[in-house]
Amino acid sequence: MANLTTILFDIYGTLIDIHTNEQRDDIFETLSRFLGYRRLVVSPTALKELYFSELHQQFARSRERFPEVDVARAFERALSDQSRNADRFLTVLVTQLYRSLSRERFGLFPDTFWTLTEFRKRYRLGIVTDAQRLFSCPELRMLRIEDFFDSIVISSDYGFRKPDPRLFHIALAAMDARPEESAYIGNKYETDLLGAHSAGLRLAGLIHQSEEDRKALGSEPQPDFVVENLRAAYDFITAKD
Predict the structure, then answer these.
(1) What is residue 240's predicted lDDT score, i.e. its pLDDT?
(2) Domain 6-18+107-240 carries which CATH code?
(3) Strand 203-207 to strand 182-186: parallel, antiparallel, or no bridges (unpaired)?
(4) CA-CA distance, 179 to 6, in Å (whole number)?
(5) Which of 117, 142, 151, 158 is deepest in the core (most CB within 10 A)?
(6) Which residues of 206-220 are buried (b: 16+ CB within 10 A; e: fewer)?
(7) Would you kindly state where each structural domain of the chain is located, as residue ranges?
(8) Mean pLDDT, contiguous 10-residue spans, the chain (241 residues)
(9) Does residue 152 contact residue 123 with C-beta atoms inside 8 Å?
(10) Is the pTM of this model over 0.90?
(11) Alpha carbon 23 to chain centroid distance?
């Protein structure tokens, strides 16, 4: 069996401790007020309805088994429906403002930085995550962990999500790594574990599992490990290698 050379990670709920609420009315009230300064008048209710309608239409149009949406495109179309003044720069501003307003908890888990530092001494590191590039790359920079990774694969770039194995294959190809010499660490059985397993990775495990999460784990395939946190995942993987 080949030695491990590569560790891939999910981001949210795995490396970053985050909680968001994208449905709050006060978020759209703030966005509506901000847009007024850009000479674009749209009520909070109309903006919210247009935005979520665009997201639903993206899902409906997709031919993917596990479709992913593009949040920036949804805002772009929602804004262009209201005014010809909407442009890409404004779309990016509104999209990132929306994200910042929706965050209710945000930061690294206590062992994230230590574990990435130790993993980096032994392996190449990459990310495979269901997320939006306009959110994730700035957030990785904010938390000063972006430079740990040789490859960052984000579902919004491709229009499909985990457990689609193609996301894992894209990351491995970018790193010139083989599935049999790679491991994946995530926190969700239905996306992270099943995706890594379908991509043929040698090891795939879960962290940050509540008692309810553990009871809900599928019978097949079983995770290679279910541990408390990143540091425990590091101990398991390095012991196996």
Answers:
(1) 79
(2) 3.40.50.1000
(3) parallel
(4) 9
(5) 151
(6) bbbbeeeeeeeeeee
(7) 6-18+107-240, 20-104
(8) 89 98 98 93 95 97 97 92 78 97 98 98 98 97 98 98 98 97 97 97 96 82 95 94 76
(9) no
(10) yes
(11) 18
59: left (phi over 0), alpha (psi -120 to 50) or beta: alpha
Q: Which residues, 6 or more positions from 157, have their beta carbon under 8 angstroms from its beta carbon?
A: 133
First-last CA distance in the chain: 10
Buried b or exposed e, range 163-174, using 16+ CB within 10 angstroms: bbbbbbebbbee
In sequence order, the 6+-apart residues with CB closer than 8 A to the CB of 102 are: 20, 21, 22, 24, 27
Handedness of CA 206, 102, 72, 52 (dihedral sign): positive
- Give the model's pLDDT for residue 67: 97
